[in-house]
Amino acid sequence: MLQFAQSACNLLCRCLGITFVVWFTILFVIITVPAVLEVSLGIHRFYIRTLCRVFEWATLQIELSAKQKNRQFSKPHTKGILSKSKPLSVQENMQELRSSAHSRRSEPQFDMGDVIYFCRKGVESIIDDEVTKSFSAQELESWNLLTRSIRRFPHRGLRLTLLWGLGVLIRYGILLPLRVILAVTGIFLFVILSTSVGFLPNSKLRFFLGEKVHLMGYRFCVKSLTAFITYHNSENRPKNGSICVANHTTPLDVIILANDRCYSLVGQVHRGLLGLIQRAMVKSSPHIWFERAEVKDRHLVAKRLCDHAADKTKQPILIFPEGTCVNNTSVMMFKKGSFEIGCTIFPVAIKYDFRFGDAYWNSSKFGLVHHLLRIMSSWALVCSVWYLPPMNREEGEDAVQFAKRVKAALAAQAGLADLTWDGGLKRTKVKDAFKEEQQRLYSEILLKVHQTQKQEKCFEDETPEGD
Known about the structure:
- Belongs to the 1-acyl-sn-glycerol-3-phosphate acyltransferase family.
- GO terms for molecular function: glycerol-3-phosphate O-acyltransferase activity.
- The protein has helices spanning 2-37, 43-68, 90-101, 114-127, 130-133, 158-198, 204-224, 253-258, 272-284, 292-295, 298-310, 368-376, 399-414, 432-462, and strands at 227-232, 243-246, 264-268, 288-290, 317-319, 330-331, 345-353, 381-387, 417-418.
- With 467 residues, it is α/β, with parallel strands linked by helices.
- It has a domain at 147-426.
- It has a seven-stranded mixed beta sheet with strand order 1-8-7-2-5-3-4. Strands 6-9 form a two-stranded parallel ribbon.
- The model is unreliable at 103-108 (pLDDT under 50).
């Protein structure tokens, strides 16, 4: 009996040893070497194509199953519940209502027809709220074989259920452990190498090695996410001594962009593991970290950003002007701070393919670790990145107008909705200033109508009657 136990133990050790060797070989040959040498073996592309074919087959099976049960396979309303016409301003809407009602009042008071506009806008906001819709997970038109989206596709047969079970084993039994090991390895190597580079004197060699270490660390993280990124218009890649602004979906946006070139990051000093990584990063690259008390000092933040952007030898600053994560269907209001500095702005648009996994971080629902585990347990992280031409502030244009112009160009490139709402509405109520602004616009309309009618009446009184 003892001899049998020893034999079983030896067999188990051999199996574990073989497994470790296989894992290490895969980690080193297929992932580590390409990450360091900046080459691609084409495995990701084949993997993504295979997943697309599987998803198409799964969708076809769901449609056939729904037809057999005499049920309609309904697709989600990806473009909204309501069919909205081209948005008009408050003035244009009121003018249209008043012209249709043929209202002629001599006093600046509202017409009963004006109520129709406010009622319609209120009902539209309740039924199809743009703000709430921007902070919820996207609905998929086809099932991606993930458990988190299984409730939206009830018409599943036996074959799809078995395929889903196989997918669970692959994602949690193979992909997730491999990704976690790769991420830990990449972070460990990055901290060690970045700290080592920090001991070198300030020179071109230190800058060169620091940039290479950062790129290697970011590419390790990209490999650990099984990210497939397509970069467009590389000739517009941000230059040194500038600011790069991008739409924000997940904290991993930093890794997605830094995989192509190094950036100087701006953020608050943290503790723990994240603080350790921050301290290692700043030793080999000029990042901008603020203490908690300094973040509220706008003048200090602006000064440090200006000083950094004025140095043409330093990497471009990466900023997400929305200030919060949005679900990649729209672009919320850009904060004007980064547009007041006066340097060149390089807009970058990021668009994720949610068929392979939900990249949106709903921070009010999931913590950061939970969010990372959700992405690592998904099939892949697929996205496209567009580098837009550099933009500068025009003469007579203030920071708010400049921010709106950049946001509009970014949204148009990525095919996202351009919204004027503040991303802070994700956690706070509408500010009184916004309500007062709407009231001011309406009062100006009333006064303008009154002045126009008064001028018309004076003109009629002054016009002599015909003979």
